[in-house]
């Protein structure tokens, strides 16, 4: 069997993308496993509506965490789209990212079980902050020291993408700081964060127009 091809320019990114898809698929599937079907005796069937209602914290945690994982998957996919090669450091940065993503089912189960506990909220927010920070680190390394991006990529795209990545961690940091004051506000902020990424921004304009097209100056404030 011939060894994998490696050039002086670096190594391929295909294995990183394959591992990413597998990690995200497993993590997103594990989220629903914390939502258990109520176990009722035959004479307790009339309690089913109330027991289902009691599941709302876990269900909310599942939906929000699933969307957040989706946001990070899209962000990671977008980051790798313009990476023309990989290297050892970049691969280990991805391993660190996958480590944090793999912990989301645990932190999501924790906040689903103890939604009013500041400690649970801080663990959850800390998990999501780390995911965003590591993803941002990948972007900066690929665009800077690693020189892994296309040479003609617009530098303003990198700046814009970096700001977009850090929006989530900024919201989660505020949510974490408010956990002791108002847990419900923290939960609302966590739920609102992924909605920010559903709104189009200048990064979407870059994709739409093609990566050789520069971002308009006035779009940088959006």
Order of helices and strands: HHHHHHHHH
Rg over CA atoms, rounded to whole Å, is 20 Å
Oligomer: single chain
What is the terminal-to-terminal distance? 51 Å
Helix content: 55-70%
Unreliable runs: 1-8, 212-222
Number of strands: 0
The whole-number mean of residue pLDDT values reads 85
Number of DSSP helices?
9
Estimated share of beta-strand residues: under 5%
InterPro entries: TMEM175-like
Transmembrane segments: 20-39, 59-80, 92-114, 120-139, 170-199
Pfam family, one: TMEM175
Subcellular location: Membrane
Describe the structure.
- With 222 residues, the chain is an all-alpha fold.
- The chain has one domain.
- It contains 9 helices and no strands.
- Helix 1 packs antiparallel against helix 3 and helix 3 runs parallel beside helix 8.
- The radius of gyration is 20 Å and the shape is elongated.
- The termini are far apart.
- The N terminus and C terminus are likely disordered.
- GO terms for molecular function: potassium channel activity; proton channel activity.
- One of its GO terms (cellular component) is membrane.
- Belongs to the TMEM175 family.
- It comes from Telmatocola sphagniphila.
- Its main location: membrane.
In short:
With 222 residues, the chain is an all-alpha fold. It is built from nine helices and no strands.
Give descriptors for this structure.
mainly alpha; disordered N terminus; 66% helix; 222 residues
């Amino acid at each position: 069997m011939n060894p994998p091809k490696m050039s002086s320019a670096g190594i391929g990114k295909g294995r990183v993308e394959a591992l990413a898809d597998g990690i995200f698929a497993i993590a997103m599937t594990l989220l629903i496993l914390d939502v258990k079907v109520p176990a009722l005796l035959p004479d307790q069937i009339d309690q089913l509506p109330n027991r289902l209602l009691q599941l709302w914290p876990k269900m909310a945690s599942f939906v929000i965490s699933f969307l957040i994982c989706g946001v990070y998957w899209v962000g990671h996919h977008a980051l790798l789209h313009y990476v023309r090669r990989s290297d050892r450091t970049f691969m280990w940065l991805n391993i660190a990212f996958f480590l944090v993503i793999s912990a989301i089912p645990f932190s999501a189960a924790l906040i689903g079980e103890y939604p009013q506990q500041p400690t649970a909220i801080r663990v959850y927010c800390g998990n999501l902050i780390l995911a965003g920070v590591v993803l941002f680190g990948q972007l900066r390394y690929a665009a800077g020291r690693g020189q892994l991006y296309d040479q003609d990529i617009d530098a303003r795209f990198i700046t814009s993408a970096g700001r977009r990545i850090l929006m989530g961690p900024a919201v989660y940091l505020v949510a974490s700081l408010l956990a002791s004051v108002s847990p419900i506000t923290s939960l609302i902020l966590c739920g609102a964060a992924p909605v920010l990424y559903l709104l189009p921004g200048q990064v979407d304009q870059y994709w739409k127009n093609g990566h050789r097209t520069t971002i308009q100056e006035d779009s940088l404030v959006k």
